[in-house]
Protein: Sulfite reductase
Organism: Roseovarius tolerans
Amino acid sequence: MPRDFTPKVVTANALIEGDVVYLTVDDQWTRHLSEAEVLTDEADADYRLLQAQARADEIVGAYLADMRPGPDGPEPTHFREDFRRTGPSNLFHGKQADGLGHA
């Protein structure tokens, strides 16, 4: 029996900076998970992923990440995605240095 489709976002890493990025409704890349487009239809999610993967001059490693609704937008359902959105694992670099750890 097939599993129900869970909401997803398209995520990748910015090609130059390496930051985690998320695809928005208006086809922009954002570093803020709260601004990501939440995909609730499997066919739409697959199509958006293909569109993102074609943008190899901007990003690398695009994939669909499972999410759940939260009070401030999508929230990761897996530890890996929660960890990715907080920035590098060594302190005082990137989002952590900017005080944006859970943006």
Notes: The beta strands are 8-14, 20-23, 29-30, 59-70, 73-76. Helices lie at 42-53, 79-85, 94-97. The chain has one domain: 8-97. The two ends are 37 Å apart (CA to CA).
